[in-house]
């Protein structure tokens, strides 16, 4: 069974005359435990697909299903136990007045876990942050540390599908390597499925098995990473992106 | 000394070891930041003094503020036993000033509790929920904003009788709309942040998001706004007192004292001026405090 | 030996704070000729501070100290603020990262470019308009008259950045400092903007300081590269020899990048050696 099926997805903002179509007729599937990339430039609609999946984009049509369950207008609580998201900007994804402990504790509480303390400790260990970060506030953490907290928060409900919205583009090169390694390790350990959005082809080629190229809201091509590595893209736009990345 | 040293070290620790520790540490850092602002400390000092004076009024006031001494009316400054002289009924001005501090603090505390809290509630709900709720709440806010303060006070007095509580009510009812506006504007900005999206993705409902995520961020700007508005509130209460709509005689409210001294302003100027200076000092103190608090609490200025 | 355009010797930028003095830039020295010099580093390396220090854009409580910062022989540190205003824009210009934040949103583009020009040259509005159009054409803007009337928010990122370049080069400076000029742009647009910058710098015989976190981009675009870490220059090399770099930090940076053509299971994680920040700065003098 496929982890994620997207069929003829359209996402738009505004109504009537002011309507802006962000995603047009996107169709693709993601297998269980696969890592799938969505590549494109800004305005291509790649991040919008993630938002539509999580219910953060109000107007969409088409069909979406996660782990065989179709998704309707409202997302049931169980959805958030299966699907979680890591946001792009580590400086904006943590509440400035909540400590790391509060962030993780609240998430666990919302999902109905009871042994919160133990789980917080374990989550921090799993993402490579020690206990000494537990009671710090975001402004006392570096970008990489904040992103680790964001990953811990996403892992707290024990999801199966992780949506990653440019998880390392706001980070330094050396920190990016650490976070990408962490994500790869976590995926292997827990058999997670990743849907990763990025504008950086080399990051996608490192992290993903297959990828889709998007331009102006439309899915232009779906490739295997191997094809990407051998610079064998079929669509001219994909080839253009490849050439610009080298 | 060693005790104080280790407490300080505990508060400044890089790595807090518990929730309590982290909170205390954050507060201490805020305090250190505030303490470095001399003007703000002066403001704080004046207000602390005001509170102490009001609390200790029965002990430090040299005379009973209500006792009249018609044989010693309109005594000048520094006259025998009356540092600030006496008013038109021979009552000691200094004692009335000291007892009047209680009334001023009472007004300030009531308004500071009612107006910002109502404003916070209305503004955050309006900003977060949006749609019709937003429109309706904002139009209600506009209606209250349109009321001129004194006219509303007059209406209250006519309906409910004069008195300090009614004056406070009138001031609060006209003071809350700006707080609602600020809270709403902040909520609109915060609402689109990633950390709000993140908690929505954990299945959090509107109530939790508004109270635990949005309020902590709005509260600082409201606190700052309240302290800066204090000056205006005190003056509004004084104005109402001056018009006879607030505190009633023989109550030693500072505004009422100015009103009583108005007739004598040319020959016995201290009767109106001394309470006027008191109002000025307290308003200034609140302004300085508000400035200092804003530097500490405003995340943009701080980080 | 021709006098270099810019000669910076032992530059320090310090920020006193409640917790002591923080040194953002520590003893950086380099010269700039009519070449493209890249300054590469991660966040906190001091690269942006170096650029701002040269233009004396660092406000108190920041302190800038150096043996000298000589622009064609004249020490900039000895100039008054008034004299510096004649230097900024006129002799040294700076292009910053995001045109959304560096262009004034309430003025038309035409107004901003003309203002930039008329600050340093007393000319009529008509002459300034003509010059602005010339500059917009030089940065490959296809419909310059329309752009002159438009507002910054109507421009795409790439166009905004080209407009910034036009605005910064119109007074004909000798040195351009570009602080992450393409980091906010899409990959396909980056190349275009860089080509324009390259062409203009070469045509006018300017010196270019290119500050970026992107090692490969800088290696591609510049002649010489300074690699900064913790406020110090840890290595200096010619751009085409970057992949033969010797310093462990540089090597570490190069190795931690995922490569499209060289797949690996795990990326090498940079092991930071405290020695790197303790060692003294390598001089970037030619």
Quick summary of this structure?
Chain A has 246 residues and is an alpha/beta fold.
List the helices and strands and how they pair.
The complex is a heterotrimer of chains A (246), B (303) and C (286).
Chain A: E1 2-13, E2 20-31, E3 35-40, H1 46-54, E4 59-66, E5 69-70, H2 77-82, E6 83-86, H3 100-110, H4 116-126, H5 143-155, E7 161-165, H6 173-190, E8 193-198, H7 201-207, E9 210-215, E10 218-224, H8 225-229, H9 236-245
Parallel strand pairs in A: 3-8, 3-9, 6-7, 7-8
Antiparallel strand pairs in A: 1-2, 1-4, 4-5, 9-10
Helix pairs in contact in A: 3-4, 5-6
Chain B: H1 2-11, H2 19-35, H3 38-55, H4 57-60, H5 93-129, H6 131-146, H7 149-160, H8 164-191, H9 194-200, H10 206-242, H11 254-261, H12 270-297, H13 299-302
Helix pairs in contact in B: 2-12, 3-5, 3-12, 5-6, 5-8, 5-10, 6-8, 7-8, 8-10, 10-11, 10-12, 11-12
Chain C: E1 6-17, E2 20-32, E3 36-40, H1 47-54, E4 63-65, E5 68-71, E6 74-75, H2 81-87, E7 92-95, H3 99-102, H4 109-120, H5 125-138, H6 144-149, H7 157-169, E8 175-179, H8 187-204, E9 207-212, H9 215-221, E10 224-229, E11 232-238, H10 248-255, H11 274-278
Parallel strand pairs in C: 3-9, 3-10, 7-8, 8-9
Antiparallel strand pairs in C: 1-2, 1-4, 1-5, 5-6, 10-11
Helix pairs in contact in C: 4-5, 4-7, 5-7, 7-8
Task: Kindly list the characteristics that best describe this protein.
heterotrimer, A: 246 residues, alpha/beta, Rossmann fold, four-stranded antiparallel beta sheet, 10 strands, globular, C: 286 residues, six-stranded mixed beta sheet, five-stranded antiparallel beta sheet, 23% strand
